[in-house]
Description:
Elements: E1 2-5, E2 8-10, E3 22-26, E4 32-36, H1 41-55, H2 62-80
Antiparallel strand pairs: 1-2, 3-4
Amino acid sequence: MINFGGCKQANxxxxxxxxxxxxxxxYENGECAFIKQESDFFAAFTRNLVSFFESGKPVVDxxxxxxxxxxxxxxxxxxxxxxxxxxxxxxx
Length: 92
């Protein structure tokens, strides 16, 4: 669980191969929505990756990449240690 403050939280689950990227939302009024990613993310990702290797210039802010990897790594640690709050270094 990621706490964004102001009673806003998120959970991220890596469910494995073959599972589509999707987003489940619960709104303040209690209504829910499920959004399945329909775009071809990996084609755009591959183009941007090739562009990075050709130019040496990242398409996204490198801090965003580091933040995502930190969430994945510390999320895995948190899953192994239930009921214990795990701080992500560098996050405020």
